[in-house]
Amino acid sequence: MLSIEPTGAVLGATVHGLDLRQTLSDAEFAGLLRALGEHGVLRIPGQAIGARHLRDFSVRFGPIQGSVTGRFHDGEVPEVGILSNIIRDGEPIGIADAGQDWHTDMSYTAAKGFVNVLYAVQVPQRDGRPLGDTLFANMHAAYAELPAEVKRRLAGMTVRHDFNVFWERMRTRPGSMRAPLTPEQRAKRPPAVHPIFMTHPITGRTVLYCNPGYAERIVELPDAESREMLDYLFAHQLQPRYQWAHRWTVGDVLLWDHIGTLHNAIPDYRPEEHRLMLRCQVMADRIFDAGFQRQWLRAA
């Protein structure tokens, strides 16, 4: 039977009673959605699953985004990406850029991202301590504590999010194995514009929807004012009181909400300390649909 154990911190809860080799019941799925809105990050420990199980679980939440490069995914289940620092026969077997700074996946797409689902296959350790924590920040709380004058000034404004800005920042870091995006790849990820304040589809509360990774410009402000305000918002949303860290264990499935959180992976492990995760990135097409909400949220 599904049960939810909150961390007691600003984010996070552990989900008990699920075996993701089995199909979720309707009640379990509705319970996960409600818990995701309330806690932002859900840990489902002790799983022993394959790529197909991860895909089948993830697709309940919405369509899965594919890779812009066409690389680093499971050969038999292409919806499942591979995150890893492992080099095999001189070639990386997955995307190795942990430590990508604070961001929200898929804010650069018109549909927006809804959830990431990661499965921990290998977790690096040193001296008995797991490495490679993932940090999260709570955007419900960040909005709630913005000064009233900032909320009034920015009400109704929008932000442009650009995938290539983030890609280039990561590509030019020392040790990165990313190549520049080709014109064709860039065309697959054109910039997208979203409201800076957004009503969360699960909680019905307002969140601050911008992030240091992809948000490049407040559309309605002149360049200098936009830069100044974005810098202010980034500093505000990353205050320690909004943050919580997940420490990985092999077998963890971690599910988190892109609309209500930011995240940042910590690269505190060496190349020989191997990390391997399977990942599905789920888009927000369904969660904003009124019929989907009536079926899974309002009637729950």
From TrEMBL:
The alphabetized UniProt keywords are: Dioxygenase, Iron, Metal-binding, Oxidoreductase
Domain TauD/TfdA-like residue range list: 5-280
GO MF entry, a single one:
dioxygenase activity
| Broad enzyme group | oxidoreductase
Where in this chain does the entry annotate a coiled-coil region?
Answer: none
Presence of keyword Oxidoreductase: yes
- Which protein is depicted? TauD/TfdA family dioxygenase
Lineage at the top is:
Bacteria, Pseudomonadati, Pseudomonadota, Alphaproteobacteria, Acetobacterales
